[in-house]
């Protein structure tokens, strides 16, 4: 790493976009990933779509109980 860097030609906010969305990575345990991946293949659906649907149903269930 250099002791000093020259930012005199830098442009503030060059990569900033107010519409940008940040998606948090979620890491599943190996056994969960394996199960959900097999299920996604069986149902011919995307793994992310399947996991999101399951979580939405769980959220709905929790909200009905509260």
Q: Bin the helical content.
A: 40-55%
| SSE order, one letter for each helix or strand | HH
**N- and C-termini, Cα separation:** 53 Å
Characterize the overall form: elongated
Q: How much strand? A: under 5%
What are the defining features of this structure?
mainly alpha; elongated; 66 residues
What does it look like?
It contains two helices and no strands. By secondary structure, the chain is mainly α. It has a domain of 36 residues. 0% of the residues are buried.
Give a brief outline of the structure:
By secondary structure, this protein is mostly helical.
Topology:
Layout: H1 30-43, H2 47-65
């Amino acid at each position: 790493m250099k002791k000093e860097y020259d930012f005199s030609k830098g442009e503030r906010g060059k990569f900033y976009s107010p519409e940008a969305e940040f998606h948090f990575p979620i890491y599943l345990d190996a056994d969960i990933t394996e199960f959900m991946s097999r299920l996604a293949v069986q149902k011919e659906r995307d793994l992310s779509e399947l996991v999101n649907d399951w979580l939405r149903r769980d959220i709905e269930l929790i909200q009905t109980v509260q």
